[in-house]
Amino acid sequence: MLSLTAVKREKRGKKVKELRQKSLLPAVLYGEGIEEGIPLEVKEKEFEEVFQKAGESSLIRLKIEGKEFEVLIHQIAKNPLTDKISHVEFFKPSVSKEVVAEVALVFEGEAPAVKGGGNLLKETQSVQVKGLARHLPHEIKVDLGKLKTFEDKIFVKDLVVPKGITILKDKDDIIALVVPPAKEEKELAGEEAVKEGEKAAETKTSDGKEKK
What we know:
This protein is α+β, with helices and mostly antiparallel strands.
């Protein structure tokens, strides 16, 4: 299990900006057995390294001034201008209650239908799952080798997850497929025609005459 060290945070409100200037991230811990959220600060670089490996569905060991908690990285906030992480929420789950988490899909292999000139379409990059925290998968693999023809599709029901884990998505939703180039070009052409028609309609006055 990955480990991350944090310290209790004294700075609040606008003073949090001072932490970010020192490459520290403001964070909070809440969850089972924690009555009030515990304000924390973590080193930005260390957190990013752990988050890259753990994601939002793997338990990590959070060390806080001599105490240890098994937690999930529940949520991160990012600066809309820089796209850098600005705040982190850690969640200590119950050992007996199910939790919901977002799990990344990892697409493996090559789709044979692509070699026939098709275009691979990935309908989603992640799925929400529900289960006990200790059973949550870090990732779910998708075998693209199953897409041998343009008629083949990979559905939610084809995904393999650990026992006790439920995917919170319709089982018949499509995860990936390969479409013929002609079909894709036809759809694009159709969309362009609709846009041109709407544009032409906007140039007409209420009496049906075109503006000059």
